[in-house]
Design goal:
Blueprint lengths: L4 E2 L2 E2 L3 E4 L26 H10 L7 E3 L12 H11 L4 E6 L6 H7 L4 E7 L5 H8 L3 H11 L5 H4 E10 L5 H14 L2 E6 L23 E4 L4 E3 L12 E2 L5 H5 L2 H11 L24 H18 L22
Parallel strand pairs: 3-4, 3-9, 4-5, 5-6, 6-7, 7-8
Antiparallel strand pairs: 1-2, 9-10, 10-11
Helix pairs in contact: 1-2
């Protein structure tokens, strides 16, 4: 059982900060293309306020990323440097699709102290890559060769992971090629199934009954709204606003507390929209030992039965395509 508490109560294990809500990709499994809120960069004074708020508790991890591509933010390098100056003991995780991570930009990251850099490649098939991402694969792979060159890779990030979102028609051959490519480049390989974005995206993976790991993190949109999680791209189920309250005040507020209580007491299905969301990573925090053990068993059985991550054969009968719904 894990508990993160200080004198005033529970605090988040992770804070995600959307420094920009813009993205240069067009992935069909992401809600970016139907997102109706403004595509903006976070104001610098708001960004710095959030970072100062995070100094009030022992934050494990910070991610300057949510529903946008960090490297289309012209100020991202300075923001990463600011995070490491003000939160030197906090793990810094950075996510990117890699297309804007050019050699010039990669050189700017040397020595900042990124702990984990995740690159979403998704496929090594040029035609499929263009269909999924809207990019030229050759440029991205050139960026990845530069990034993973032994001359500089350890000075960029302590860990580098290449990620593939496994869609219903992703073949075993595609996955094997991706695994081999990651091994060749000396990076970690991560293959993960489709999330359904609260039921808006077709996915064969069922909705779990156990608590979701997102209840112990805080996801902040570029305008300061604290959204429920990355699946709530419009902030419809907001927990609060860090322009009006501190990070801790929002996390300990009535709305966030209710979500954690519902999940931890086995009532995930009864709270909207979690009852229709198949985000499958479990939370083992903040519950009595017996409940924690029960949840661990439930999550383990889910992973064994449905294999939401790792190498898996394509679904025999994929569901019909369903476009992402614009926020109601």
């Amino acid at each position: 059982m894990f508990n993160r508490r200080n004198g005033g109560g529970e605090y988040p294990r992770l804070v995600a900060v959307e420094t920009t809500s813009r993205c240069n990709a067009s992935c069909p499994f992401c809600p970016y293309n139907v997102k109706v809120r403004d595509k903006i960069a976070m104001a610098q004074d708001l960004f710095e306020k959030i970072i100062e708020d995070c100094r009030e508790f022992p934050l494990e991890t910070i991610e300057p990323f949510l529903n946008g591509e960090p490297f289309v933010d012209p100020d991202i390098v300075g923001r990463l440097e600011h995070i490491k100056r003000r939160l030197p003991r906090t793990n810094l995780a950075v996510y990117s699709n890699g297309y804007a991570l050019t050699p010039k930009r990669i050189d700017q990251l040397v020595g900042i102290g990124i702990d984990h850099l995740y690159i979403s490649l998704n496929t090594l098939d040029p035609d499929k890559y263009r269909a999924i991402m809207g990019f030229n694969l050759a440029r991205t792979l050139d960026n990845m060769r530069y990034l993973t060159d032994p001359v500089r890779r350890q000075r960029i990030a302590h860990e580098i992971t290449f990620r593939m979102t496994r869609m219903d028609d992703t073949t075993l051959a595609e996955q094997d090629r991706f695994i081999a490519y990651c091994k060749e480049r000396g990076v970690r390989c991560f293959i993960v199934g489709l999330f359904n974005y609260k039921g808006d995206v077709s996915s064969h993976l069922p909705v779990p009954g156990y608590p979701c790991e997102h209840i112990t993190r805080l996801d902040i949109l570029s305008d300061g709204t604290v959204t429920l999680c990355c699946q709530d791209q419009e902030g419809k189920y907001a927990w609060g606003d860090v322009r009006k309250a501190s990070v801790l005040e929002v996390y300990r507020g009535a709305v966030a507390t209710r979500y954690r209580e519902m999940h931890r007491t086995g009532r995930r299905a009864q709270i909207e929209p979690c009852g229709t969301c198949n985000l499958f990573w479990p939370s083992l925090d903040g519950m009595p030992l017996a409940t924690t053990v029960k949840v661990a068993v439930q999550a383990g059985l889910y992973m064994i039965r449905h294999r939401p991550s790792g190498r898996k054969a394509p679904t025999a009968d994929p569901p019909p395509p369903r476009p992402l719904a614009v926020s109601e």
